[in-house]
Each structure stands twice: as structure tokens, then as C-alpha cells.
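Figure caption, in words: inputs first, then the predicted bound structure.
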Amino acid sequence: MARFSAWAVAKNALSGNRNWTSQWRKPDPKPSYDVIIIGGGGHGLATAFYLAKEHGIHNVAVVEKGWIGGGNVGRNTTIVRSNYELRPNALFYEHSLKLWEGLSQVLNYNVMFSQRGVLYLAHSPGELDAHATRGNAMRLHGIDAELLDRDAVARFVPQLDMSDHTRFPIVGGLLQPRAGTARHDAIAWGYARAADQLGIDILENCEVTGFLKKGDTVTGIQTTRGDISAPKIGVAVAGSTSEVLRKAGVDNLPIESHVLQAFVSEALKPVLNTVVIGAGGHFYMSQSDKGGLVYGGELDKYNSYAQRGNLPIVEDVHTMMLALCPQFAKLRLLRHWGGIMDMSMDGSPIITKGPLPGLYLNAGWCYGGFKATPASGWCFAHTIANDAPHALNAPFTLDRFNTGYTIDEGGSGPFPRLQ
Ligand SMILES: Cc1cc2nc3c(=O)[nH]c(=O)nc-3n(C[C@H](O)[C@H](O)[C@H](O)COP(=O)(O)OP(=O)(O)OC[C@H]3O[C@@H](n4cnc5c(N)ncnc54)[C@H](O)[C@@H]3O)c2cc1C
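Bound structure (flavin-adenine dinucleotide present):
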């Protein structure tokens, strides 16, 4: 398969871009593999890639019920950051950010990672204090963070309404300059292409319908394209985690599925040079390279497996947007959609061996799994290859919900809708 380069782009442009080859093979399933990864989202594909690249395990299948990029990896608002306060999350997400920084070169695929900064607004002195605490914790972990006062926020994002009479007056903010955005589809396609080049079979339109078991031990999967066996099976199906593991007889996971919506406006000339998060709730907004504003808000707050959302959240999100930037009221909404979030009970992920012999679990990504994609795949591959977690994902056990060692970053207790 051709490598991407300036020369290849120029050569193909001259022939009307008709000679690009397909980016990954479409193989038939083999009867058995060394490892099966269920879920061809960002996390499943990254896991397969790092299994081959870091651990020399190439006899791997990624089993995807739909098409590559059809799940949350292609539905998110593309924010990448590592501005966490609690040590396990801070170290894990910073490892991810460092992988992002070299990812286009490693994959030979432009993932359009743009370190334009992520700014958390503070709307009260108390919130600014909380941001200062978080920023200090980040710096103690070696992560970049800058506390901005009101004037610095106004200079950094001139589009914000800085008047005192707004619904959410802005008193300052916490900036992570190395954070930013990436192209979500490119992550799916880049990892798929790179994994395929290392010999991984990507099996699309192949839904897992059941598990093959000997006693409690999982030995394979039943799929719409036949049975496939493997001694190690990783599950990375994000919002479908509970549904898929129920087929293996596991029905007590500390995960709820909720809808989260995303919105894209019509295209504008460049107006927003960073990612802004704030408005008294969980509103976030950036501008894509195509010019559309990309933004979102809270969960729909009821359990669902539907990849579409409800109208009150549409109103809610736009209310928050206009509170920050009233001039965007004239914009037209171009597209919006929903994705299914795998909300864990403490807002932190699970990357672990189990819950049954032969199984490995990657789940609980809540709002934040896109930015985690490289580190999640890297740590999950390590866990599967070594039958033990890496130090970075050792705290992200399933058992922590039994022992009480939860990682409650939001400080909101065991309520996924509040994370
Ligand atoms: C609207 C929205 C905005 C978001 N914004 C951000 C953000 O700004 N930053 C951030 O970091 N995160 C964000 N996220 C979260 C992030 O997108 C997810 O946490 C992450 O993509 C989940 O991992 P994944 O890519 O592997 O999931 P997916 O892409 O959903 O992959 C899981 C795959 O499993 C497949 N599957 C399911 N069941 C089966 C089965 N039975 N057999 C075979 N395959 C199966 C699905 O088809 C799917 O392709 C957002 C999510 C949404 C929905």
C-alpha cells in the first residue's frame, strides 16, 4: 500500500485522484486468531495497532458490527486535553496527549491534531479558585496549565461577551495550551490503515451475537459471519458494553448508556481560535478546519441506546452558546446527531483483565474517550499481551466499584448523569 507523502498527493492530483488504493483489506474471517478485539471504534483499532506494533502480536481480528468510523469515534466533538486533577487520570490522559503529539507521523496519516488550546471559563470567584487548584495539580504532574484573569480571557478569545450583565459573567479561566482538537474520522481511518498494514484483519459488517464458552472461560465469539475462536478476547464497544457483555452472561456492570448530542453550524470564516468550555454547565465549542462551529453540552440524562437526542437539550445547548457569544444567534444549525456514551459510576474508565477468564474489558469512557484513544489502545494492548495492566491503567480496575477505591474526578458520587 502506498505511503502518504507530498509526492503521492501531487501525483494523484494530476490523475484526478482516481488511483488511490483502498486503505485497508476486506478479508474473510479466519476460524481462529491469537486475539479478537470486539469493536472497530478508535479504541478497538488502536488496541489492535499497538498489539502488533509494541508486542509483536499480529494474528489479530477487529470485529465491527457496522463500518469503521460509524460509532462514537466518528460522532464526537474532537476535543483532546489532559487537564485532570486526580493523579490516575492526569498521568493517563497526559500519556495520551503525548501520543497524540506524534501520531500523524507514527500512523503516516494526517490526524489533523491542532494544539490550539482548551480554555475552561470561570463564572465566579469560587469557580476560579477550583480552576487554580486543578491547574496547580496539573503542573505538579508536569502538565501545562495557565490561570488567566478576566482581561487575559478577553484578549485570548475576543468573541466572548465579557460584559457584567450576561447570564454567566466571565471572571477568568484555566487554559491548557497544548490541548486542542483532531479530526475524528482520521483517527479511525489512520489506525485502521496502520493496523491493516501490520497484518491485522478488520472484519466489518460482522456483529457479535454471542460468546463461545467452556464453563466460565470465554473461548470465542459467535458472529453474523460465523464462529471465531481465540484465547484472548478484548471488548471495546463503548456505548454497547452492557449489551455485548450481557451476551456473555455478565449483567452487573457499573456502566449506564446515555445519549450525548453534537452540533455543527454552517461554515464561517475563522472566528474562534481555541476550544472554549463553560457557561455554568458543560458547554464546549470550537471551530473546525472546514469553518463550522462544532459544539455540544450535557447528556440527555436518561438511559438509551438510540443514536439520536431530544429537543430540550437542543434548546439548552444553544441557550448556553448564546449566553457566551450572542453574535452567533444569526448562525444556522447545519447538522446534529447523538452517540451512546458508556458512563461509568465514577466518571473514570475501566481497562482491565476480566470480568470472565479469556475476556478483557475497555469501557466507561463517558464524555472523554476520544482524547483517550491512543493511550487507551496502548494500555489495553499492554494488558492483553502481558495479562497484567501497565502502571498507567492499573488504577482503572472493575473491582474498584466493589472495594470503594473509585476515581471520582467530578466529585459527584456514583451518578453517571452528573459526571
Ligand atoms: C456527541 C459526542 C461528543 C463527544 N465529544 C468528545 C470530545 O470532545 N472529546 C473526547 O475525548 N470524547 C468525546 N466523546 C466521547 C468519545 O467519542 C467516545 O468516548 C469514544 O469514541 C468511545 O470509544 P470508541 O471510539 O472505541 O467507540 P465507538 O466508535 O463507538 O466504537 C465502538 C464500536 O463497537 C461496535 N459494536 C457495538 N456492538 C457490537 C457488536 N455486538 N459486535 C461488533 N461490534 C460492535 C460499534 O458499532 C462501534 O463501532 C464524545 C462522544 C459523543 C457521542
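The mean pLDDT is 95.
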